[in-house]
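Now for our target.
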Amino acid sequence: MTNSNSLLPLKMLLFSFHATNTIIISFLPLYLKHKGLHGTEIGWVLAVGPLASIFAQPFWGYMSDKYKTVKRVLLICIIGLLFSSVLFFQMNGLIAIILMGAVFYFFTSPIGALGDSLAQRRADDLNVSFGGIRMWGSIGFATSSLIVGEVLSSIGIQYMIWPYLFFGVVALLVVFQLTDVKVESDPIQLKDVSQIFTNKPFVIFLAIIMFITITHRANDSYIGLYIAQLGGSEGLVGLAWFVGVASEALVFAFAGKWFKKYHTLVFIIFAGVLYSIRWFIYASIDDPFYIIALQFLHGVTFGVFYLAAFQYISRLIPKLLQSTGHLVFFAVFFGVSGIVGSLVGGALIDSFGGGRLYFVMGCFSMAGTILLTVYHILPYGKGTRKVQQ
């Protein structure tokens, strides 16, 4: 089997899962608003996902490393996604939505991280670009945001379960065709995981990037509501995500050509600078079409930041603990940061509006970028070689 054929199921998995993820990230806040929840309550529901992921991602990562399989863990999680989503979308009261949401996110939150972890390992095995595989997740996200946005504008936000289940079933079908990881070593023990949390460069790096990842996750949660505040429709929200994630796919696709030139941290700092500029511009906007026009910056900020950070921490983690380390990274990036971003963002947008929220996000990003620059200058930031694509 050729490299491209053996990677096709993995690319299709990334495409279909991120297509489902689009629907949750882009339209769940609007769906919850339709259910009668206000901004702060929506923040509570959105914070459940990151909270569940803090526990779910290290747990499923550990199970993956312990039993030396990503494929079987993905299968369990996707089956859980399908069953729990049906129940989640039937809930009406705030408490019921939060409780069922915790179960739903327990299964869904690790899938992206496990898919990316498998993509990183397959890229290393076949000596191909990780970005070239990962871009298929972005293509799925972009395609879904554009199509589903238009569909929901026509049929109503209350029917968002149906496109979600469609892409979820596709993900389930392709996971059976995946090529699993091969790790030649003794099974890991729980005590081995301590190597990750005693790795000072890894822990310090995760603490610093939270200043930036909190703002990224707040934007994920509230850009739809901000566009709606400015007078935009569901279709415009979908278009905004399409523009952003299409540019992200291009960054992933061509990363292999320019990623070798500088130390990985230089790219992370560069992305941090652009994040700060992006949020300050968004804070001053009064027309939703300006946000859509500037959404290409999403690819340059998140695309560069995520790819560089993921590859950087992959060099800090022992090979035996790759899945666990990757999912700890995800738990911080999308978990802890998501909780803070959802709760604080919900309170800010409720009390002061979207403009003030984005101004605060710009200040946070700027602080994180300064700390990353200091980290790069200090010995901790010098410990990894340039990324090899």
